[in-house]
Amino acid sequence: MAPRRGSGGFGSSYYGSSSAWSVETSFSLDMYESKSLFIAGFAFDVLFALALIGFLTWACLIRNHNGQKKGLVMAIITWLCDHPLTDRCSSFMITAIVYEVFFLAEAVVTQYYNIDLMLQVFFSDLSVWLIVYVFYNLIHRVVNRLTDAGKPYAAISIVHWVILAILGAISIAAWGIYVAFRVYYVQGSRGNLVDLVDSMNKVDSARVILFWVVSMEIFAWFLFAAVKAGSHRFPSRSQSPIYAIIIGSICWFALCLTNVVIYIRYYIEETTFVPDYLPTATSVLQFIFGVGTLVGILLGCQGWHHIDNSMDKPPMTVQYPYETQYQQYPAYNQQFQPYHGQPQPQYPQQYQQPVQPYELQPSPQPQK
């Protein structure tokens, strides 16, 4: 159900105001049949927000300046603004903690709260795109060690950038339709809402399904890397980061699959009734799979950071190898050979007169 209007009702409140955005809207837990489910979902959202703050601190402590760390930090920040399991086809779905606080506090706000929903959807799409970018960056890092030249194939990078461009374009299109839907909703243009909802369902469903297909590709790449981990570029200690990222990719695949099931089950089929437990279920699944995804990525990035420090640096060499610098002189080595009956080597004579016996030394003569 949509949030209730002010005490004056929709008609008097809307037409009595000079601006549709100034119309007041009240929120209350009475709008939900089960308050316990709402509170449970809110608790999991808060726990996941705290976990994201911890993950953000963890990511900042990893001394890795490659693209995957920068993208991961931005993904966590945008994920803090909103989570990927966001329902955008109905105003009664829980989209963020701020939106949930409105119901707990029974707040009365103006229609400008719709701007908050627009920003939440924007950050939701951006966080999903950045997570895919981080996974692709990690795939390129794996391919670096699989190829003999130490560089990923150009075709792989080109294909991944094309996929990211397609994902970005369809996400922007879906967000633009959602913004138009919210604007028409506030202005009361009910005739245009039906067409917008239909277009939004189609574009958003295509976006969700496409991200799910990409998540399968990501999992397949890391599974392929695990099979090839016995090559010369993958010592045993390099395999543990791959296994950690495989766990993260499985959780990401499960998160995208959950989103696909929700959209196909409840939004593509417009006549299907959305159950009351769906917001709570999405919050619980988001917490489980979201934590698993970020833990896997962070463990992989941290593990490869330690491996790079020990393997990628050139070995230290002694500038002056004292033990070998004189071995090229045979005369020097001959001095330290055992005698064993051989003639003693002749050492260079000192530049001074030989010492004579005492009897042969001249004695001083008395002066006359």
Largest β sheet strand count, sense and barrel closure:
3 strands, antiparallel
SSE order, one letter for each helix or strand: EHEHHHEHHHHHH
Shape: globular
Structural class: mainly alpha
As a percent range, the share of strand residues is under 5%
Residue-averaged pLDDT: 74
Number of helices: 10
State the end-to-end CA separation: 143 Å
Unreliable sequence segments: 1-17, 84-94, 307-323
Helix content: 55-70%
- Total strands: the figure is 3
- Gyration radius, in Å: 37 Å
Strand arrangement, largest sheet? 1-2-3
Structural summary, described in words:
It contains ten helices and three strands, in the order E-H-E-H-H-H-E-H-H-H-H-H-H. With 368 residues, it is mainly α. The N and C termini lie far apart (143 Å). The longest helix is centred in the middle third of the chain and has 38 residues, at 190-227. Helix content is 63%, strand content 2%. The chain has helices at residues 9-15, 35-61, 67-81, 97-104, 113-146, 154-187, 190-227, 239-268, 278-311, 330-334, and strands at 4-5, 24-26, 108-110. The protein has a three-stranded antiparallel beta sheet. The relative contact order is 0.11.
Summarize the structure.
The protein is mainly alpha-helical. It has ten helices and three strands.
Ordered list of secondary-structure elements with their pairings:
Elements lengths: L3 E2 L3 H7 L8 E3 L8 H27 L5 H15 L15 H8 L3 E3 L2 H34 L7 H34 L2 H38 L11 H30 L9 H34 L18 H5 L34
Antiparallel strand pairs: 1-2, 2-3
Helix pairs in contact: 2-3, 2-9, 3-5, 5-6, 5-7, 6-7, 7-8, 8-9
